[in-house]
Amino acid sequence: MNTKWNSLQQVTQEKAEKLGSAHQVQRFHRDVDETKDWISEKDEALSKDDLGKDL
User: Fold this and answer.
1) What is the pTM assigned to this prediction?
2) Cα 30 to the chain's mean position, in Å?
3) N or C: which end of the chain has fewer CB within 10 A?
4) CA-CA distance, 10 to 2, in Å (whole number)?
5) What pLDDT, on the 0 to 100 scale, is given for residue 55?
6) Per-residue 3-state assignment (H helix, E strand, C coil) for 29-53
7) Which DSSP letter does residue 55 get?
């Protein structure tokens, strides 16, 4: 009985670690997407020819 309990605890720990790793990967991809969007916005703003008018 103790052997099965220990085995179950080990499997549970391994799944928790994998889930944590998957969450980190998902967060990384979200951060990459947000950074790409930010870069696109800045690139678009910099590529505009509208430089304003002098008074």
Assistant:
1) 0.63
2) 4
3) C
4) 12
5) 61
6) HHHHHHHHHHHHHHHHHHHCCCCCC
7) -
CA–chain centroid gap for 7, Å, is 32
Q: Which phi and psi angles does 39 have, rounded to 5°? A: -65, -40
End-to-end alpha-carbon separation of the chain, Å?
85
Structure tokens given for 36: 């790409």
CA–chain centroid gap for 53, Å, is: 41
When the pLDDT of each residue in the chain is averaged and rounded to a whole number, the result is 92
Q: What pLDDT is attached to residue 53?
A: 74
% of residues, the chain, pLDDT over 90: 80
Instruction: Give me 9's structure tokens.
Output: 């605890």
Which tokens belong to 32? Answer: 């990459």
